[in-house]
Amino acid sequence: MEPSDSVVPTVSGQVRGASIGAVRAWKGIPYGAPPTGERRWSASTPHSGWSGVLDATDFGPAAPQPLDPTIVIGGVVSEECLTINVWSPRSTITSRAPVMVWLHGGAYMYGSSREPLFDGARLAANAGVIVVTVNYRLGALGFLDLSGAPGAHGVSPNPGISDVMLALRWVHDNIAAFGGDPDRVTIFGESAGGGLVTTLLTVPSARGLFHRAVAQSSPVSSVYDRERAGRVAARFLDELGVTTVAEARRAPIDRIVQAAAALYTAIPTEAPGTLAFAPVVDGDLIPEHPTDVLREGRAAAVPLLIGTNRDEAAIFRYWDSPLLPITTDGVERMLEDMRRDEPDVAFPSNAQVLDVYEGIRRRSVGLGITRDIAFRMPSIWAAEGQCTVAPVWLYRFDFATPMLEVLHLGATHAMELPYVWSNFDTMPKDPTFRLGGRRRAQRVSHRMQSRWAAFAHGNPPDGPDGSSAWPAYELEHRSTLVIDAADRSVEDLDRDLRSGWGDHVLSFR
User: Fold this and answer.
1) Is 504 a catalytic residue?
2) Against a cut of 0.85, is the pTM above it?
3) Which residues are CB-neighbours of 191 under 8 A, at least 6 positions away?
4) Do the beta carbons of residue 273 and residue 219 sit within 8 Å?
5) Per residue in 41-93, pLDDT tens?
6) Of 312, 416, 445, 507, which residue is the catalytic one?
7) Is-catalytic flag, 413?
8) Do 120 and 173 form a contact (C-beta atoms < 8 A)?
9) Which of 113, 354, 375, 384 is found 20 to 30 A from 4 (Cα to Cα)?
10) What are residue 7's DSSP bridge partners?
């Protein structure tokens, strides 16, 4: 617990971590001032620091959020949530290792860096990298634009994005003391965390804070304009029972969470395919819609590893979640709303889209359409633009254990996460291995970690020892890695999808 190398200096003060085996860990290090009181909905600012040595052996609290039995955060939530965690292989004490900064998912509403799934010990040790995980504000506190509301003094349209930016600056300023190289930082994230990654690629003020990016199941296009965000903000104040930002800043945190939960369900129910809380094109921090910037090859010229899962939408049906439309009616309403949102875009006809799913069981067509418009096609459009300015590697994760196939979940949303982290059995009542498949899963995990690690080290993400080559995605060949019990590279895997959905980026604005 107390080897000398567990005490590390940071710009805010010294921190003491723990050393266990081959890995050292520091948890719950504050990087931002508590965003409470007058700081609610303001851009984050650096922590003022501390005297003496801060004990950094336990995680900080999760951001305020509704409790969800599928997300293991220990029930510890607080607005004083801006903390960071670091895992470092002991071999990096005197060297500078690549750094991987994780941004967790959760529909911009849920999640935490304290989830057991995101324990970075195995990834750090196996990959020879410094692993950093970040807490940021969620829901109405992190992704609600109150800048147009009455009394909006000091309000930021994207407080959650400002948190992540501040955390990346903390990494730049401090990670060398933990054995990391501030000039070799890879950001990686899944779902909403992947959305943060693809958005940050288009944020001018984020350039130089990271040098590689991994976007897993990113909702690339779920970024909205200020008009839509303003309508959500007005509804939030209504739900909260206040009229000004000053009143909202005085509201109890449990009321904030309750009001946010009501909108989280209501907005996608009324407007299928949209989220209540998401990044906002504010004209400043996020000057343009990220899909436009990525598609046109104007994002930061950093290498990108991007992909989705074969059965993304299945878990949303399993959970009966309002976030993605599954029924025929919901899908048709979503497509019609998208056409109305962008009347100048050459939107494919329903017949053209349905041709893509010919031969698929009728009850699965909605799952396919939702999967592709929410995740797969936006990732392809992003890859097509980004590959003109930097190397890109595109994947599709297809592996599923027998039990997940029996449950009709397959390789659904978030199912690749245990394979990247090599952390299985972290969820309560997890059915994944009830019908076997653990050994194959561990082999898949070994290959995935090796690929992600190679990418973070600045190399092509080929398999262990250079096996299983993964060709870069280029417009001439469009190579895609299918990750399964045995990986395989396929040329233009998504040809039919691209033909059906067309070349124009389709999204809500």
Assistant:
1) no
2) yes
3) 105, 106, 107, 216, 217, 218, 219, 413, 414
4) no
5) 999 999 999 999 999 999 999 999 998 877 888 778 999 999 999 999 987 65
6) 312
7) yes
8) no
9) 113
10) 16
